[in-house]
Amino acid sequence: MPIEVAYTDKLHPIVKPLADWTTVNEELYNNIAGKVLETAKPLARGKQVTKNKDGTEKVDDTIVVWTNVYKAKTRVFATTLGHNNDTVGDARYLDLVARGLLWATNKLKG
């Protein structure tokens, strides 16, 4: 099922120019009930609606993009998105990952 990606910190340099979007059919990985380390900064949530065997709908909503700073100097960018080749080839995903990589290496301009 597709994942609705909603940026939660729209002023963070990584996601500031990016718009919310929806993936193709994709796997939504749960990172321990939607939580990250206390030092991490969530940047996006993913929401996915699936059907249970009895036909009822189930909604999963979890953090899918975040940053962290390790030992006050090492920048970390992480995402659980990208388990489908079509998602990985999507320009919106590529922009997110490229901007995350540039931020992690302290090379992101604007």
Order of helices and strands: EEEEEHH
Q: Report how far the terminal alpha carbons are from each other.
A: 33 Å
Report the major sheet.
5 strands, antiparallel
**Which radius of gyration do the C-alpha atoms yield?**
14 Å
The tally of beta strands, per DSSP, is 5
Number of helix segments? 2
Query: What's the overall geometry?
Result: globular
Task: Please indicate the count of domains.
Answer: 1
The fraction of residues in strands falls at 25-35%
Structural class: alpha+beta
Low-confidence stretches: none
Strand order of the largest sheet: 2-1-3-4-5
Quote the average pLDDT.
90
Helix share, percent? 10-25%
Q: Would you write up a description of this structure?
A:
- The chain has 110 residues and is an alpha+beta fold.
- The protein has one domain.
- It is 16% helix and 34% strand.
- The chain has two helices and five strands; from the N terminus they run E-E-E-E-E-H-H.
- A hairpin with a 5-residue loop joins strand 3 and strand 4.
- The mean pLDDT is 90.
